[in-house]
Amino acid sequence: MDALKNQIKEHEGYVNTVYKDSLGKRTVGYGHLCVEDHWEDNKKYDQEYLNSIFEEDFNNACGIAKKLIGDISLKQSSKEVIIEMCFQLGYRVAKFKKMWEALKQEDYVTASKEMLDSRWFQQTPLRCKKLAGKMWRE
Q1: At what angle do helices 76-89 and 125-137 cross, to 10 degrees?
Q2: What pTM was computed for the model?
Q3: Judging by beta carbons within 10 Å of its beta carbon (0-12, 13-18, 19+), is residue 33 exposed, middle or buried?
């Protein structure tokens, strides 16, 4: 899981102050959405603290992925793709209905195409392309 964590950190980037993401939402650290009230603008947060927030977010993404995957048999690389999607999108990954149908059929090529046919692709095309490639290649 360390490789997956490092990949997510690379894709998210790291900022130790609150900033606005590509959708204009307040974010900090490794892509942590500032939904809690305690985040202050213009304050520099300690990396150790933000790493602990990342670990919580990662564990949350793993839990969401596990629920969404359910009893679908997936290869490890595809599970990792789903975890990263959940890290970025949360439960909205459930809305990828055609992707899930393809995964149930072990059709990883169609699943990857469905990932690219999304608003998510429009928002983060490079990340989406990389993960779609990982879905069917590895």
Answers
A1: 160
A2: 0.94
A3: middle
